[in-house]
Amino acid sequence: MDAFFKLMKERYEAGKSTIITTNLEPEEWYQLLKPKDMVDALLDRLYHRCIVIKIDGQSLRGGSSD
What local confidence, expressed as pLDDT, does residue 4 receive? Predict the structure, then answer.
């Protein structure tokens, strides 16, 4: 996890674009990533300069091609 936090910090400070896709809501990141204060800092950086596109609907994975 430390490597992910470090990468996101470096990209944020350099003004680099990053695309993150997830099926988790931001508040669910706390269950996956630890410690809480690092997740807070990560989400703060991500939300500072972001556009959130939320797509709801049926999954397209695993469907039949018939």
Answer: 86
